[in-house]
Structure formats: C-alpha cells, structure tokens
C-alpha cells in the first residue's frame, strides 16, 4: 500500500488546529511571510503545506482549474523545492544544494501569473547545505509582497537560528490512533501502535510483511548470538528494497527506548552511551546509502554495534 504524494492528497488528518492558525492569520490580514511546519517524519507536514498553498491560490476544490494545476505541478504561482534524485545512484540526494534553491530568486522576481499570491514550499529544510541555507535566509530577510514561504522540517533544532527566527512556527503532533486508522484502514493495529502516530512510518513498517526484520532486530537488541545461517538471511534482506533502512530504523528505535529507560532511572551515563550508539548507527546508515556501500556488510556492522550493548531491560 502506498499513499498519494502530498501534492495529490486532498484530506487532512489530525492537523486542523495548525491549519486554522494559518487561516486565522490570513483572514485577519496578519499573514506572516514564512511558516516553519515541524514535526516527526511521515505525519503530513508537506500535505499541510500543499493544502495551505491551495487555499492561498484559491484552489481548495481539487477539481477546479486551479486545483488541477496545483496537482499537476503546473501552477505558475507555486514552486516546490526538495531533495532531488541523483541520476547516478537512482535515489534522493543527501542534501538540498544552492543550485536547487536558486530558482526561488527567479520565481520571486516575476509578478504573480494570476495576480494573487505566490507560494514557495521547501520540503525538508534540514537538508539544506550551508550555502543553500544562506541563500534561503537572504530571501527570508527581504521577502517580496504577496509571497508566502512554507518550510517543512523534522529537525527544527538543526536549522540556522537566524532562519528559524524569521519564521512563524506550526509544530505538528503525531496522529491519534483513531486518525491513524482513518488514514490507514488496512494496516494492522500492531503496526499502527509501533508507528507512533506517523502514517509514513506505518507504511514503512508494514513492508516487513512477515515480521522477519523486526524479529532479527529484536534478536540483536537482546544480545542473542547470530548463527551462520542468519548472516546469510541478513545478506538477502539487505538486497531487498528498504530492508537495510527498515532494520536500521528498528534498531534505532530500540536503542532510543533503552536510552529513555536509562535516563528515567537516573542512569545518565548509560543514557549517554545509548545515545552515542544511536548516533553511530545513523552515521553508518547515512554513509552506506550516500556512498552505495555494501548493505550486507553494513547490516552486519549494525548488528555487531547493537548486540554489544548491555540490555537495560527487555523490549
């Protein structure tokens, strides 16, 4: 099961309070020129951004001429900036570069094609490299009239403080279980519970249809020895679509749980040790995916890294 892209998603679940905050500012003519939409991955930040854009562009009806142009990506007053596919590797680049941001300048130097608002969506501003972040900051410092920039991020703390200070915040919360069931009626409750209010994460976890990757991750987290036959299976899983990413996600979640448990019981040194391991795991995943390293070998490294931890409690 896959979800439609944010550009094509018509219904909004769980974020109506944030939407109303934006609409109130618009209706009272106190609309800020830049909005930072933050929250965990996969909860609908970009969906909200496109919904707000459609409202500004008078395309609330998705079947109206304006609504159809927004869906098709052909509306002259809407520009989306996000990570691009690396043609050599066939996957998303690890960062948004200054060349990706430069089209904003040209877009804003022209008057609105339909005489109203111009909207720029930057999806994933945490991926801006230093030069791209500085280029965007200059735009935020001197925004043209009748222009709104909608920025989404999972990590607002990673952004330049000067960039954050020029935005009004819309902090989104994970969806409730009821909202998750409405979004994903065919996904099991077990997966929904493990998704922590993120439909995107639920779909990601649901790809482990037989639960084998989850079982292997649990085995590593419990420090159980890996037999030689399992290493062969791990190599096979690494070659499957998203197998490596899913394993790293599950291992990272398990380590984070142990870190929280240690901190709650006053073991700050243990919590710091778990946090360090989680950071090392994230680095391993990033480097493996960015440089097209051997995922089978990387999975073995991830297992060795995690199984060496002392289990603070059964998960």
From TrEMBL:
It comes from the Bacteria. SUPFAM superfamilies: P-loop containing nucleoside triphosphate hydrolases. InterPro entries: DNA_Rep/Repair_Clamp_Loader, P-loop_NTPase. This is DNA polymerase III subunit delta.
């Amino acid at each position: 099961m896959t979800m439609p892209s944010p550009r094509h998603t018509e219904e909004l679940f769980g974020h109506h309070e944030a939407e109303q905050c934006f609409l109130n500012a618009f209706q009272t003519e106190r609309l800020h020129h830049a909005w930072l939409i933050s929250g965990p991955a996969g909860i609908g930040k970009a969906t909200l951004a496109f919904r707000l854009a459609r409202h500004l562009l008078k395309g609330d009806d998705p079947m109206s001429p304006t609504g159809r142009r927004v869906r098709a990506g052909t509306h002259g007053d809407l520009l989306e900036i996000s990570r691009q596919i690396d043609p050599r590797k066939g996957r998303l680049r690890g960062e948004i570069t200054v060349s990706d941001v430069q089209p904003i300048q040209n877009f804003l130097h022209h008057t609105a094609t339909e005489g109203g608002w111009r909207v720029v969506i930057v999806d994933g501003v945490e991926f801006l490299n230093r030069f791209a972040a500085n280029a965007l900051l200059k735009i935020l410092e001197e925004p043209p009239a009748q222009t709104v920039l909608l920025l989404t991020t999972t990590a607002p703390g990673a952004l330049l403080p000067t960039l954050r200070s020029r935005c009004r915040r819309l902090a989104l919360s994970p969806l409730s279980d009821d909202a998750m069931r409405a979004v994903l009626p065919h996904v099991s409750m077990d997966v929904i519970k493990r998704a922590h209010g993120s439909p995107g994460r639920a779909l990601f976890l649901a790809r482990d249809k037989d639960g084998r990757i989850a079982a292997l991750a649990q085995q590593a987290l419990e420090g159980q020895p890996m037999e030689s036959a399992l290493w062969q299976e791990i190599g096979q899983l690494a070659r499957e679509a998203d197998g490596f990413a899913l394993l790293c996600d599950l291992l990272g979640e398990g380590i984070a749980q142990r870190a929280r448990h240690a901190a709650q019981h006053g073991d700050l040194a243990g919590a710091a040790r778990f946090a360090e391991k989680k950071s090392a795991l994230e680095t391993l995943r990033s480097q493996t995916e960015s440089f097209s390293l051997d995922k089978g070998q990387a999975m073995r490294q991830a297992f060795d890294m995690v199984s060496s931890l002392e289990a603070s409690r059964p998960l």
